[in-house]
Write the structure tokens for this entry.
Amino acid sequence: QVQLVESGGGLVQAGGSLRLSCAASRSIFSANVMGWDRQAPGKQRELVAHLTSGGSTNYADSVKGRFTISRDNAKNTVYLQMDSLKPEDTGVYYCKIAFGSRYAWGQGTQVTVSS
């Protein structure tokens, strides 16, 4: 069972940047899909960004042009670079990695954007 540990969340002013990291306990070289979801207070969890093993990316419309997902196989880490942050980006961000058909999830990291 792979373990995922997120880091990099925090409090930032609107317009600022954060980089989230998701460190896996095993190699992510064979992972099919990597991604980040988020859950704002009182709202359902939503997809933020997706990265496939072939390098294809998919972003929520609300973050396109501002967020970038990437991976570093040597470090077994997935990143989410978040720029031009807005108060509506506030929420708990969860990393997920799929090996085969099953996803592993991280515990979440809080991102708070103040206006």
